[in-house]
Specification:
By secondary structure, the protein is of the alpha/beta class. It contains 25 helices and 19 strands. The strands form 4 sheets. Strands 9-8-10-11-13-12-17 form a 7-stranded mixed β-sheet, sandwiched between helices. It has a 5-stranded parallel β-sheet with strand order 2-3-4-6-5, sandwiched between helices. The longest helix has 22 residues. It is globular, with a radius of gyration of 28 Å.
Length: 641
């Protein structure tokens, strides 16, 4: 059977090891060819091909549930669950999602794009199963990186206290440090430890002996020695396993994650054990593609690339691109941190994405990576601020959501000067709804003592970085988009801080007031130019700050012009436009306000350009919406772009 013929994972049942190995080879080839063409996560999926096949051969996927943590390691899962023919559409509009989605397949039992959720979800399913008297297996597959997340540890703690709830957790460990423990001796010890006679002796001998007539408590010293000897025979073969056993799990491993025979044997043993079970599987991230094996960080995810060379495909345009916002952020931060040792950059396992890997390389003592632990990152930053340091927490907008309580409780209530730098704020593209940075304006502006700002371009970003570091009255946050800047001139040093809460007027006009925030300022200027074609003159304000708003500037303009438009790259509900309306109402400036941003929908995976069109956020579409709202003109004189 070929991979292209598999539409249901139960078709793996009965396959020989050699047949499964052939399928594994096809999965890797299809995976590589697709990511080379479309871009996406590469290393994680390549590392779990045999794990997926071995696990699924031991399950009945018509009833059994498998929850994959994060989802970017589940591309092999997608290829054997009916999505082979459409896999070439991966991460494209209306195509296969880059993460798991319950709406995409009945085999995607739980959707996720954020880490550390799988054990909790699978445990919930197992508890529901038992409550309803049903009979199926529940499995969580989680990577060693995701296991650093507090939620995963909370779930392990809970599951360990439920000895009658069957749950299998597969730990996909691609750290090389455990490789010496993979071999014949650990496998033998696992088999010995988990045999029924040995488990019976370990669990029942004490009770049986205590019940013997004329023996009772008198056998206690001998019993303790016997228990010690049994413990030696049944002990787990490594410290990691001992920890999980103490937490209430039966631990098996480490198992060679690329040995199908060993995996199938082990999973079959695990399925027959009672209570929570942890199977520790050692894998190689990027397995089967030498470039990915050699550079596990660089090939975690890739844009389109040449399969033969492993290099990114050259851009169709020969014109060099402006620097990305992430690069400008990092370069500016390094320059400032070199002169101010109080500055500490903090990331939550996203050093490369945020650019802080460069800070680590140049100033390692001013860099902290806490792992996948955003809550911890925020409170560590709070502690640093307590001691006079200047913590800079660089966390994606979507991931900072996970630390909302810490932002409120540990930072804002205490008015601690933590500088939050929210990368990937706004529409992010192919990663889809789990990664869109839509909600930070709404969830941060509601918290007392928080200052919010967003730059219109990379030069203004440099000034905002200085502003954020110099601000000492409390927390301050800066949001900025994924991708490149506008190519405006930027300085290498000597930046000046911006006055807090002060906006700027970029264009004067008497017909409509456009107040734009952050990444939508330049599009707002384009909108104003399009409106000129209809005889409509707009004043354009770069708000700079969502909180506090510059009402001294904006309110008189709104009162005089009488028609107001807000434009933002974020959710409309409780967003920047809502803040503007609230501020005007407080000042009794009652004028019509049109809010333009992301409506109350989940933005699916697509290119950013496609998403902007679908949401009505291109300059031409915004211009048309303004004309229609305020009835400036029934027709366009020219076709807008």
């Amino acid at each position: 059977m070929r991979l292209s013929e598999i539409v249901h994972p139960n078709q793996l049942h009965g396959m020989s090891i050699s047949q499964l190995e052939a399928i594994a080879q096809e999965i890797r080839q299809k995976h590589l060819e697709t990511i080379a063409a479309t871009g996406g996560h590469l290393g994680p999926g390549l590392g779990v091909v045999e794990l997926t096949l071995g696990l699924y051969q031991t399950l009945n996927l018509d009833v059994d549930k498998v929850v994959w943590d994060v989802g970017h390691q589940a591309y092999p899962h997608k290829l054997i669950t009916g999505r082979y023919e459409s896999f070439h559409t991966l991460r494209q509009k209306d195509g296969v999602a880059g993460y798991l989605k319950r709406s995409e397949s009945k085999f995607d039992h739980f959707g996720a794009g954020h880490a550390s959720t799988s054990i909790s979800a699978a445990l919930g399913m197992a508890i529901a199963r038992d409550a309803k008297g049903e009979n199926f297996k529940c499995v969580a597959v989680i990577g060693d990186g995701a296991l650093t997340g507090g939620m995963a540890l909370e779930a392990i703690n809970h599951a360990g206290h439920l000895p009658n709830t069957n749950l299998l957790v597969v730990l996909n460990d691609n750290e090389m440090s455990i490789s010496p423990n993979v071999g014949a001796i650990p496998q033998y010890l696992n088999r010995l430890r988990l045999t029924q006679p040995m488990k019976f002796i370990k669990e029942n001998v004490e009770g049986q002996l205590r019940n013997l007539p004329f023996v009772g408590e008198s056998i206690k010293p001998e019993l303790e020695r016997l228990k010690d000897n049994i413990k030696i025979l049944t002990m787990v073969p490594n410290k990691v396993g001992a920890v999980f056993e103490e937490l209430g799990f039966t631990y098996i491993g480490p198992i060679d994650g690329h040995n199908l025979k060993a995996l199938i044997e082990t999973f079959n043993i695990a399925h027959n054990l009672k209570g929570p079970v942890m199977v520790h599987v050692a894998t190689t991230k990027g397995k089967g593609y030498s470039y990915a094996e050699d550079d596990k960080v660089g090939y975690h995810a890739q844009g389109s690339f040449n399969l033969t060379t492993g290099k990114a495909e050259p851009s169709a345009s020969s014109k060099p691109k402006p620097p990305s916002y992430s690069k400008v952020f990092t370069d500016t931060l390094i320059e400032l941190a070199t002169k101010d040792k109080r500055i500490i950059g903090i990331t939550a396992a996203m050093a490369t994405g945020t650019g802080l890997d460069k800070l680590q390389a140049k100033l390692p003592n001013q860099y902290i990576d806490v792992g996948i632990a955003e809550q911890h990152a925020v409170t560590v930053a709070a502690g640093l601020a307590c001691e006079g340091m200047r913590p800079v927490a660089a966390i994606y907008s979507t991931f900072l959501q996970r630390a909302f309580d810490q932002i409120v409780h540990d930072v804002c209530i205490q008015k601690l000067p933590v500088f939050f730098c929210l990368d990937r704020a706004g529409i992010v593209g192919a990663d889809g709804p789990t990664h869109q940075g839509m909600y930070d304006i709404a969830y941060l502006r509601s918290i007392p003592n928080m200052v919010l700002m967003a730059p219109k371009d990379e030069a203004e970003m440099q000034r905002m970085i200085v502003t954020g570091i110099e601000y000492e009255k409390g927390p301050i946050a800066m949001r900025y988009p994924r991708g490149n800047g506008y190519g405006v001139p930027i300085e290498s040093s000597g930046w000046e801080a911006l006055p807090i809460g002060k906006a700027e007027v970029l264009r004067q006009g008497d017909d409509v007031l456009i107040v734009a925030y952050g990444s939508m300022v330049y599009p707002a200027m384009q909108v104003a130019e399009l409106l000129v074609e209809h005889g409509v003159q707009a004043t354009v304000v770069n708000a700079r700050f969502a909180k506090p708003l510059d009402t001294d500037l904006i309110a008189p303009l709104a009162a005089r012009i009488g028609k107001v438009v807000s434009i933002e790259e974020g959710c409309i509900m409780a967003g920047f436009g809502s803040a503007l309306i609230e501020a005007l109402m407080e000042l009794d400036v009652v004028v019509p306000v049109q809010r333009i941003g992301v409506p109350d929908v989940l933005v699916d995976h697509a290119s950013p350009e496609q998403s902007f069109v679908e949401l009505g956020l291109t300059s031409g579409q915004i211009s048309d919406r303004i004309l229609a709202k305020f009835a400036f003109s029934p027709q366009r004189s020219k076709v807008s772009s």
